Each structure stands twice: as structure tokens, then as C-alpha cells.
Predict the 3D structure of the following.
Amino acid sequence: QVQLVESGGGSVQAGGSLKLSCAVSGYTASRPCMGWFRQAPGKEREAVAGISPSSMTTYYPGSVKGRFTISQDNAKNTLYLQMNSLKPEDTAMYYCAGSRPDYCGYHYVGRKASEYTYWGQGTQVTVSS
């Protein structure tokens, strides 16, 4: 059974940095594509980063491009999200997500929540001005 457990959230002032981690377990066959999503109160869940099974393809929406970096350490079964130059509008619950093992091609990264099957419980990020 696939399990995703996020950590690293917290409160930070605008301009600060945080690094989120997601411990991944339960994948036994093909590697999935992985992503980070966020959801603020009253807003839809949105993607903030994605990475292909090969780690060679990444995706960032314009709102975080240049500030957020996704990476994964397959030896440690951990997904990361480095967030720099944080803004108050980055305040949200952040979720780690994984696709089905057979869904993503080696260099493909999903951009939509509907492409991901497994979700963590979330970690709160609060950025104050």
C-alpha cells in the first residue's frame, strides 16, 4: 500500500525559505511521477511542482517558477520541495502526491490533480508579511 507522509511545514516571514519533505513508501514496481500541490481556504487545489520518474523533467506553474524546486532522492524514498522567496500568497496546506506506478512515462510529469492517485495528509505553510 502506497503511503505518503509530508513534513517540514511551518510559519515563516515573507522572503524566507522552507523545505518540505515527503516520505514515500509502498511502490514496488515502476516508478511513479510525483508532485506537490497546495490548497488555500476557499480555493481549488493547485499544482506547484511535478517531477518525472527519471527526475529529468520537472514542472512549475508561473506563480512559483524560479522560487520553488522539486527533487527526489530515490535511495531515501523521499520527495522534496525547496521553497524560497516565500510570499503571503503561498500560504496553504501543501500535499505530496504520487501517480499509479504504471501511469507516467519515464520522462512524463503530471500537471493535474486528476493524474495523481495517492495523496499525503498535508503540511501547513504559513507566510506572514
